[in-house]
Write a structure and sequence with these properties.
single chain; alpha+beta; 46% helix
Length: 169
């Protein structure tokens, strides 16, 4: 079976973990858990001051992936220029969809959330929960743009802001 093939993640690689965004593999360690030897990726999420241990054989199944290619990052930034698509569903349902997109770890889906929830200064106020989701999506997007482009987060933030501010209202 090719499905259990181990992904080629190595220490010092940046990876994207769906529920937490961009992290860096510190090491690969062996641990004995319940009498079984397990190989684990030790991933650090510096921004959240958090370390995660992920079984190497489950990493892909969980949705862990390498950073997006520069092409995908460009596509995601292009997505931001689009017109916000807001469904007429109740906010609770939309909020749930936005959260699923953010936690999917899919950069394009995250960019869609940023696009849909972005407010220009002259637009109506955002509710607290809209703002929370927007900021979560923006942070995920910015961190990955930073890691892929090799710039710091502030530089990536500037890049994303320029695209958002330059888009058609």
């Amino acid at each position: 079976m090719t499905k259990t093939k181990k992904p080629e993640f190595r220490p010092n690689d940046f990876v994207v973990y769906p529920a937490h965004g961009v992290g860096k593999i510190l090491s690969i360690e062996e641990q004995v858990i319940a009498g079984m030897s397990l190989e684990l990726f030790v991933i650090s999420f510096e921004k959240d001051k958090m370390t995660l241990r992920v079984p190497t054989n489950r990493a892909t199944e969980i949705g862990m992936r390498s950073l997006s290619s520069p092409d995908v990052v460009l596509k995601a930034l292009e997505t931001l220029k689009g017109k916000a698509k807001v469904k007429r569903a109740m906010w609770s349902r939309r909020a749930q969809e936005y959260e699923q997109k953010i936690n999917s770890g899919d950069l394009m889906a995250i960019a869609e959330v940023v696009r849909d929830l972005h407010r220009a200064d002259d637009q109506r106020e955002q509710s607290y929960s809209e703002r929370q989701l927007y900021e979560a999506a923006l942070e995920r997007l910015t961190r990955e743009v930073a890691a892929v482009s090799g710039v710091d987060e502030a530089g990536a933030q500037k890049k994303v802001d320029e695209v958002l501010l330059g888009r058609a209202a």
